[in-house]
Amino acid sequence: MTDTAADPSPVDxxxxxxxxxxxxxxxxxxxxxxxxxxxxxxHWLNAVAVVVLIxxxxxxxxxxxxxxxxxxxxxxxxxxxxxxxxxxxxxxxGRNLAEARNYHFLFAWIFVANGxxxxxxxxxxxxxxxxxxxxxxxLKGLGASVAEHARFHFPADDQAxxxxxxxxxxxxxxxxxxxxxxxxxxxxxxxxxNAVGGVLLEIMGGRQSARTLHFISAGLIVxxxxxxxxxxxxxxxxxxxxxxxxxxxxxxxxxxTAGPKLGRRRSTDExxxx
Length: 274
Known about the structure:
The protein is mostly helical. The chain contains eleven helices and eight strands. It has a three-stranded antiparallel beta sheet with strand order 1-2-6. A hairpin with a 4-residue loop joins strand 7 (256-258) and strand 8 (263-264). The radius of gyration is 22 Å and the shape is elongated. Residues 1-18 and 265-274 have low confidence and may be disordered.
């Protein structure tokens, strides 16, 4: 077996700073500290806020379920029209524009405050640099990572200590592009904000463009959530949920891969892994 403490690999370099020590488990597994308390709390606050924002946003959208580009609504030629949605997909239940706006604005500020705390923590502690920002070496391996994902091959051994390059690029894009775009387009449509800083609406190309970009941002977030939850289930819902509740994540023996049936390849050091 190699001595990982002496290996200056990206996995080791990222896994060690300001961490609790690993806890050995039976069967060659290791319990490793993955998510500090603030990250876990902000994750669940974010999850609740985003779900309410999406469902209340759909209720607001249904007041006029058509999207356009530019300054004016070209009623005869919308860019896209939204079909009717069931009441269970809306907050509040049933069509209610006034209450939907109240929910939307309240949880938007919860989302913003929570996001600012998370961003400050990530940058001040260097967590973003260690966990989110991909290295040049990782970017060179992007093609191999895409091929692994296409085969639904996800290592569950020591490589699972860190995010792969696709995860890092996706998280970075969400944090630095999609979520800010949703916030900025939302603010640009606010009459109260326009009274103070209406220049945002001009930058967006008009109210209808801002509304459409806001919808696109929300769609990208929904797509991210669907893929994220799907991979959480595929790679082991109990282990993944446990890590986001307790902070501890189980690393499997060398050669293990995640999936509905945990697989282990032959180890050259240990022979057949039982």
